[in-house]
Amino acid sequence: MPKPEPKHDLLSQIPSPSTRLWVGLCITLSIFGVFALYAIHEVRWLEDFQVNVVQKNRKASLQLLRLQNDAYFLAIALRDMTLPESRYPIFYWRGEFTRVRDDIREALALEAQYAQPTPAGDEKRTQLRHVLDDFWETADQAFTLADEGHEATARYLIRSQLESKREVVSQIVAHLLTLNDQAQTEAGQRINLVYGKVKSDILLLIGILFLVALATGLYTLQANRKTFESLHHLAEKLQVQNQQLAALYDAIHTVSQEQEPIKVLQDACEQLSRALNVQRVLFLKYQPEEDRFIREAACGPGPEETPDALLESALAASLSSSDPDRPYVFTASPRSAETPIPALASSEYLALPLRFGPDLFGVFALGRDEGLWPLG
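Predicted structure:
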């Protein structure tokens, strides 16, 4: 017959610590996850800042030095072109000017790509492009005059206009270098500020995470301590009951040697009723020849609650489907008896087998008015 589901379980009243332990583990892992994500975010921000600002600023400085070197070369070339005793005519310098013009155009494009956009820097770059366009236009006029044979006019044009425009180019490039050096210094100061901020933020985050971890640990410790105290109280209660049952079994062990076994069994039923706080306790002796049980002793309500025949037949029927070496629960149902009694309700009993050696001597049947036994 199917065993009834338990409705009263002492262990179900004690909360399991597994949920709290899982929550504590998740919070601890999330603490390390948050710290790792924050550290990675700050490190990547610093790397991007250094790549996008510092490194590009250095490359822009190299291009400005390149422009400054080209301006210096133009100054030497203009000086040599205006000397009366120059061994080379003016048109001889056309190829060098073309090379310097291409180099300056490339340097300007790269410097504009690497430089950080600022109002002062953008204004100077625009001014530099206009001055260079005017410079190259004047240089082309000088070379055209030289090609037509007007060397003296070309030299005068170079001394009076081209040299002054070249000086303006050098001044603008020098000013851009100054602005770039200031941006480099500001970037270094900003990096230092960021490092200090990251350091303080990490210390603050570590403090907050430490407090969270400490609170989680203390909560888990307190909850687990209460759970273990409940388990300890339950274990002490079970130990007392086991001692009472052990004394009861020791007393029952002498049944075969006692002169009055019925009285001993009656005393055993009364002790079992007091130890386990049940209303009715019966002892039914097993008759292996007839494969049936006969009541030998009882205490509690009279047989009108559950007839002996009904109880004996229900116990005999449950013996084949239960383990005779362990306690089990059976139901004395009036419909399961040979003569059904509709007026009676079903009663649930806890069976405690009593064995002498390999043989089954009898069974203690424990019944109570309400509730089910916590055995499945």
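Summary: The chain has two domains: 18-214, 256-367.
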